[in-house]
């Protein structure tokens, strides 16, 4: 097993993160580099001469007749096929965003030169993939449908809509005092590479993207998604699975959110101090304060395991932590060693894979043999790191297939050996 080479904050820092109430989400699929021409670099063997490569290009042209025609002609001269085009009107010009299919021997520098020669400026280019073949209206409608079904989809929808960006949720400020509102925008504001949107639960969602300014069109689309989320209110997929444990007991696994806070607090009361310490890595008295944040869909997704009587006996969290993804488990003492933690973990990992994450990590201690065993049972490549006396286990998700648990029929029974 190789050692993890990057540094993570131990779970003991959760108090600081939750107190600040500034959850952060990142996208993985589109990585915008600084705005310099992409030299293309060496081509993989699969990109032999004669083959075509997908690119996304954004450039600004003058808002006058013939400017777009000149740009299209310059691309056509180099054998570039324009698959789609979006226009973003600005005050001083028009931003044209292309999906291009170009010869494999034409790199980013050549495409940028073609745009510049045709009068384009502030050209931005990056490699594209098959996901970009979906036209913009279809993609936006798909993101809206996902958001309508699940409140936890909003941050994922925003980052898929806008590319690589940092999304922070700031709490509502009090009416009076040092954090009182200072005349900030009610419906939102756009400032170059930063947009601010009114959060559905109050407060502000701040979206920031490195180097590439947002356009008014992107701002309008993002605001429409947030407004849709606000109108629909709290919601989760209704699907649930009834699991038969090895000893014959039935457990239901379903999604959970802040509406389950009281039941989760009651589970805390039934847990031993040692179980809570292994889970939260800090003062046991602080554990209750973290729950409302952990259950919030703005932080990630939560699965609950409950008995036939409705008592929650286990919680599993999938948490967006910067550009990484954390998994965490808590199972009530009387229900440990029955496979509940492993069942929750496998489903969380599948959700992470479905969201496009490349790995997940768990912060625990070597004495927490249950968590260590659950991570090993995933049968995935694992990395280990000891950091400040804490064990960090990272699972690579290259071979994980998405597990759409919520698409099963409500109450469908799944037996586990």
Short description:
The chain is of the alpha+beta class and about 425 residues long. It has 11 helices and 18 strands.
For the structure shown, list the relevant keywords.
Aminopeptidase; elongated; Alpha-Beta Plaits; 5-stranded antiparallel β-sheet; disordered C terminus; 417 residues; alpha+beta; 6-stranded mixed β-sheet
Describe the fold and architecture:
The protein has 11 helices and 18 strands. It is an alpha+beta fold. Among the domains are: 11-23 and 236-415, 3-Layer(aba) Sandwich (Aminopeptidase), CATH 3.40.630.30; 52-128, ACT domain (Alpha-Beta Plaits, 2-Layer Sandwich). A 6-stranded mixed sheet has the order 14-13-12-11-10-18, with helices on both faces. It starts with 13 loop residues before the first helix and ends with a strand.
Which SSEs are present, and which pair or pack?
Elements: H1 14-20, E1 24-26, E2 52-61, H2 67-77, E3 81-89, E4 94-103, H3 108-117, E5 121-127, H4 136-149, H5 154-162, E6 166-170, E7 189-191, E8 194-198, E9 204-208, H6 216-232, E10 240-244, E11 250-256, H7 261-270, H8 273-280, H9 287-294, E12 300-306, E13 312-321, E14 324-331, H10 340-354, E15 359-364, H11 369-376, E16 382-387, E17 390-396, E18 412-415
Helix pairs in contact: 4-5, 4-6, 5-6, 7-9
């Amino acid at each position: 097993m190789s050692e993890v080479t990057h540094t993570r904050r131990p779970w003991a820092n959760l108090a600081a993160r939750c107190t600040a109430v500034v959850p952060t989400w990142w996208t993985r699929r589109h990585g915008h580099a600084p705005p310099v021409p992409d030299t293309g670099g060496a081509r993989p063997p699969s990109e032999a001469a004669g083959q075509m490569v997908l690119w996304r290009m954004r450039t600004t042209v003058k808002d006058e007749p013939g400017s777009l025609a000149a740009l299209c002609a310059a691309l056509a001269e180099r054998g570039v096929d324009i698959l789609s085009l979006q226009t973003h009107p600005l005050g001083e010009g028009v931003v044209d965003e292309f999906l291009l299919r170009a010869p494999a021997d034409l790199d980013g520098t050549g495409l940028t030169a073609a745009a510049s020669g045709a009068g384009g400026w502030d050209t931005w280019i990056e490699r594209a993939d098959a996901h970009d073949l979906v036209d913009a209206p279809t993609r936006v409608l798909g993101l809206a449908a996902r958001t309508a079904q699940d409140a936890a989809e909003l941050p994922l929808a925003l980052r898929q809509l806008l590319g690589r960006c940092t999304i922070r949720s700031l709490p509502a400020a009090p009416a009076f005092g040092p954090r009182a509102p200072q005349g900030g925008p009610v419906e939102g504001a756009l400032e170059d590479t930063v947009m601010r949107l009114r959060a559905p639960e109050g407060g502000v969602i701040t979206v920031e993207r490195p180097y590439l300014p947002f356009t008014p069109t992107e701002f309008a689309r993002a605001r429409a998604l947030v407004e849709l989320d606000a109108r629909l209110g709290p919601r989760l997929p209704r699907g649930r699975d009834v699991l038969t444990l090895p000893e014959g007991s039935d457990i239901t696994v379903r999604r959970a959110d802040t509406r389950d806070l009281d039941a989760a607090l009651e589970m805390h009361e039934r847990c031993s101090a040692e179980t809570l310490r292994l889970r939260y890595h800090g003062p046991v008295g602080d554990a209750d304060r973290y729950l409302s944040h952990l259950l919030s869909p703005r932080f990630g997704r939560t699965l609950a395991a409950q008995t036939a009587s409705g008592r929650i006996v286990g919680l599993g969290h999938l948490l967006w932590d910067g550009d990484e993804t954390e998994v965490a488990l808590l199972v009530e003492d009387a229900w440990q060693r029955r496979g509940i933690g492993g069942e929750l973990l496998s489903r969380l990992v599948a959700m992470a894979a479905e969201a496009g994450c490349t790995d997940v990590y768990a912060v625990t201690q070597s004495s927490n043999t249950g968590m260590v065993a659950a991570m090993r049972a995933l049968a995935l490549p694992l990395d280990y790191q000891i950091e400040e006396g804490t064990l960090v286990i990272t699972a690579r998700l290259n071979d994980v297939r998405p597990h759409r648990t919520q698409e099963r029929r409500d109450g469908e029974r799944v037996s586990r050996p």
